[in-house]
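User: Teach me something about this protein's shape.
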Amino acid sequence: MVQRSAFSLAKMGAKPVTGSDAVLQGDRWRISILTDSLIRFEWSESGRFVDTPTQMALVRDFGCTPKFEAVERGGWLEIDTEHLHISYDRQAFSKEGLYATVKGANAVGNTWHYSDEQHGNLGGTYRTLDGIDGAVPLENGVISRDGWAVLDDSRANIIVESDEVDGEKNPFGTWVLPKTEETTDLYLFGYGHRYREAVHDFYTLTGATPLLPRYVFGNWWSRYHRYTEEEYRELVERFEKEQLPFTTAVIDMDWHVVDDVDPKYGSGWTGYTWNREFFPDPQRFLGWLHEHGMKATLNVHPRDGVRAFEDAYADMAEAMGIDPGSEETVQFDLTSPRFMSAYFDQLHHPMEDEGVDFWWLDWQQGGVTRQKGLDPLWGLNHLHYLDSGRSDGSSYSERNPRPLTFSRYAGPGSHRYPVGFSGDTIVTWESLKFQPYFTATASNIGYGWWSHDIGGHMFGYRDEELEARWYQLGAFSPINRLHSTDSPFNGKEPWNFRGEVESAMVKALRLRHSMIPYLYAMNRRAAVEGDPLVQPMYWDHPEQEDAYTVPTEFMFGTQLLVSPIVSPAERDVQMAKADVWLPEGTWFDFFTGRRYSSPQKEGRRIEVWRGMDGIPAFAKAGGIIPLQRQARDEALNAVSNPQSLEILVFPGADGRFTLWEDTGASEADNTWASTLMTWTYAAERDSVFAIDPVAGDASAVPASRDWTVTFRGVPEFVSERVNVTVDGMPVRPAQIRYDKTTLSLSVDLCGVAASSRVELTVCGGLPLSDNPIVEDAFAVLKDAQVHYRTKEKAYAAIRRFGAASIAGFGAMEVHDDDIQGRFAQSHMPHCVMQALAEVLLRA
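Assistant: First, the predicted structure itself:
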């Protein structure tokens, strides 16, 4: 039996008791001032309150006592903090007797009364998208346009330290039990429009997002299909032949015996016995996946317990005091420490020693256990996550030092148990359109690591363009996991699609793998700073109305803005559009270097049009984005800290970025290596990009690296002005080249010591490139499905009058009679006109 005493409240970071200086209390009520904007309200008929951690709340002592004043006036308690005024009549909570006003909130509904509906809430997330076709109403988050939000923790179970539970020895150290007191327990988040601060304090209350292992940021392959070992090997080898990187193999339920189950035992939905017909030697198969750079997870449906046909039945029965000869089913029971200990020790640990790296907990059977209020999904997530992080010296714990589960969302606080599986969606454009909004909004409840069924799971219809656009969303999702059902027509392998669709899919998969260095730095940011990878636009722009009107747009880390295409292309223009709001500043197309100006404080709304392989992703001026490149002797699926990197730098403003890397040790034992990159920009004097020597744990990174620094959105002539120094000594780059299609100047440096400082100076300044308007307009017109004479007239007008005068036409505000006449006679389709307008009005 594995000793799990390390699963203590201290290890979980619990500090459940609020300091007495921040507590106001009567016989049956208690108000705890956690921050000047976060208040806990409790009512207990018995006068006894909850000072233990709950499933959601771990920390109620934030380390300092907030400033507040409390006075009694006319039988009322009046509490003032910097951001709230609270009035309470000291009676049982009621709408009339308990309310709070958020100070400085620019909202009509900035006063909360007890039991108010949260009409202004900006949403959180939802348990599962199983069977959903399109949108679904979301649960509440902790931010609201009204300035306040409420989380009700009244029905939560508590987490206690105990060596024994109901007469059973408890090897876990902690356990989840019902509350001994019936209390009302509310948390009021009164942060106004300080949305980011509200989420940060939610993390303090509920626990931080853990640091994920590096491999999860690559591509995952998943399919509900009866793979054999031979077929799976052939699939991986085909991926390798096609140069398609994958880091995670998700093996659905048919790894175990499903069909050959005697009906007296029920169905084969639950199972723990390898199907030896498909996988004759599981350890060999899992070892082969590891040799090819992939981690492996298996799907489990534990509801039906352990039945007599299972290989592990005898051991499980004996562990539970059941005579194996009786063939009595060992019932699945999350409320029993004895069962859960055997569940891990007899069922899961042996397979982990064979090579299973983590588990896909596919619980779909409701929310009832033998314990009142305990959701089995939450219990599975909690215990599996803790068990996956054990340090027992086994081959498993050495191979996987960071805990990981893969399961559905089970309520506020579930971010402690990543990664999330959002469920089996329907294959439609409506489903795709909902997922960017669903992903971004989940950050409002701190749930940052969603994994969707990229490409859609089941039913629906075949639409190759839809699949390509879903792959592109996947590249800019927290976790990129391709998935589909077992239809012979629904495989997501790129070679199953026609040429341009396959090309777009391949491009998206390779892009995703290249972004691992950037994603891993954002992984650290999520764990250390409390900032999820994907965030709604209104987090940074709460007073800009347009920030609330682009539900499919989001920030992807600190450097990128993404608005994925979620609707089909218009035939006349052979492109699809995305609605984009660009905040104030200068922005660049991440891929092409085209420049977009948003000079007004309120930002700029535009339609952007892209062909099949185009993704609307933008970097702000000053942006720095690290990408990994496959070194000559490096495996395709490698996720180690790369020896070869390309750094994309976007001109127009100063910028800085820290590349964070580590050895992948457990979070408690982890040390970091950091490489600071700075960009000092000037249009008419020297511009300098610098890579500092590695700081911290230098053993985590290669001793030397090949760097490619790419300045995107710059003119070609600056190639002649680039000087490079390493540790102050001039060096000759291996190569300097310019790519006209992406307006990119690239400088290659080989074999640079990680301990060296690199400086690239563009002497005399680095001007911004002019957008190639005429060439880009020609590209739009070339593919437009309109009369040739119409194209010729439009192109002649663009060439004749240039961007300045033609921009009026693009905006549909033409006043020049000559231009007006030419286009009025052309019968140009509206979508073609809008695509041209984007080209002509970019900057």
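Now, about its shape. Residues 584 and 737 are 32 Å apart (CA to CA). Residues 788-810 form the longest helix (23 residues). If you'd like, I can walk through any region in more detail.
User: That's plenty for now, thanks!
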